[in-house]
């Protein structure tokens, strides 16, 4: 029950935004970007989505997930977007593409304010209103390398 209580405390901080979009001008000196589906970039940019999911274990030191940068641009990707992995509300913004475009517009800056470990699906379900991903995508993320934790 202690983990659930800790999660609820962290959940209350979500109102301040796990990924806070920055609406002022993007600094020219910022050259760090995170690749994300364009439809998710759009949801982050508009404020509809406030979280990102990442799997731990790739370069964790001492078993602790840590970001190299807490402010970064969102670099939109198109080819691997999956219509079936989005909630129906996001289908209208989905733009299928067989190739990545020659140029993209970088218009979204994100700032991570919290990193929350998700140990079970119920915790993610509590965040359902904060993202545009379908249950199938959430299941896939929990199932992929289940020995590694999922973070939002």
Model description:
The chain has one domain. It contains 4 helices and 7 strands. The strands form 2 sheets. Strands 1-5-4-2 form a 4-stranded mixed β-sheet. A 3-stranded antiparallel β-sheet has the order 3-7-6. The protein is globular. The relative contact order is 0.25.
Taking all Cα atoms into account, the compactness measure Rg is 16 Å
**What share of residues is helical?**
10-25%
Overall body shape: globular
Structural class: alpha+beta
Q: What fraction strand?
A: 15-25%
Termini distance?
20 Å
Largest sheet features = 4 strands, mixed
The stretches of 5 or more residues where confidence is low (pLDDT under 50) are 1-18
DSSP strand count: 7
Mean pLDDT: 80
How do the SSEs run, as a string of H and E? HEEHEEEEHHE
Structural domains: how many? 1
Number of helices: 4
Give the neighbour order of strands across the main sheet. 1-5-4-2
State the gist of this model.
This protein has 152 residues and is α+β, with helices and mostly antiparallel strands.
């Amino acid at each position: 029950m202690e983990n659930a209580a800790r999660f609820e405390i962290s959940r209350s901080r979500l109102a301040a935004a796990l990924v806070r979009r920055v609406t002022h001008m993007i600094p020219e000196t910022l050259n760090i970007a995170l690749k994300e589906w364009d439809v998710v970039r759009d949801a982050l940019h508009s404020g509809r989505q406030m979280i990102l999911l990442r799997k731990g274990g790739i370069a964790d030191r001492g078993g602790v997930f840590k970001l190299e940068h807490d402010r970064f641009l969102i670099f939109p990707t198109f080819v691997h977007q999956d219509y079936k992995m989005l909630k129906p509300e996001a289908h209208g913004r989905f733009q299928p593409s067989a190739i990545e475009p020659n140029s993209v517009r970088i218009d979204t800056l994100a700032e991570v304010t919290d990193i929350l470990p998700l140990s079970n699906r119920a915790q993610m379900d509590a965040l359902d209103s904060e993202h545009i991903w379908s249950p199938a995508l959430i299941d896939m993320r929990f199932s992929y390398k289940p020995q590694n934790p999922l973070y939002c």
